[in-house]
Amino acid sequence: MARVSQEHLDARRRQILDGAALCFARNGFHATSMQDVLKEVDLSAGAVYRYFSGKEELIGAIVAEVLGSVREAFEEVVHQSPPPPPDELVASVLGKTLAARESLVVDGRPAFPRLVIQVWTETLRSEELALILREGYGSVRAAWGEIVEGYQRAGMMRADVTPDHVARTMIACVLGFIAQQSLFGPAPVEVLQDGLRALTTMRAEGTAAGGSQLG
């Protein structure tokens, strides 16, 4: 019997994850059955269950993959001195995250933002998924915290600001932007980048030139 290559196994796993993500974004997690997933990916039950035991494992794998890629993107710049300004960094990471899933489309609109909302809703019911999400966001927060420390060492940010507070704020901005896309339609990441740049270069009235700012 011919041995299946790792490349083939990886491609099949990718096919299943993308098909499941599309189903979840289109119909919601609970309204999607495994039969829906099998039909979407045009594979037998045996082929799919070889990789995933059911819907819970599928959505957990999707969430872990997305958060892992985001964490890795931030960790790549942790040791840059100084790290890129927040607006550039957020636009770069979010742009790559959305571009990697641009083929997932529902009713002519990107499906990824809708999928994010579905995941948030499901975490209220599934403690297992909530744990995956907490661990993933924890690692992203930690990476952001290190980046903030880099800003502080470079004199780009006040030293008396708690790095984790900035990390939580930046993550909140990104999540809010994704939620807006789900509710109101697509928007280019440049919208978020421009807004962050404007906010982080504000100066309080009377602040001397050269005062502390983000970038």
TrEMBL record:
Keyword Glycoprotein in annotation: no
UniProt cross-references to PROSITE patterns, sorted A to Z: HTH_TETR_1 (PS01081), HTH_TETR_2 (PS50977)
Keywords from the UniProt entry: DNA-binding, Repressor, Transcription, Transcription regulation
Domain HTH tetR-type: 10-70
Domain of life from the UniProt record: Bacteria
Record InterPro entries: BetI_C, DNA-bd_HTH_TetR-type_CS, Homeodomain-like_sf, HTH-type_TetR-like_transc_reg, HTH_TetR, Tet_transcr_reg_TetR-rel_C_sf
DNA-binding region(s), chain positions: 33-52
One Pfam short name: TetR_C_6
Coiled coil: none
Protein name, entry field: TetR/AcrR family transcriptional regulator
Organism: Streptomyces iakyrus
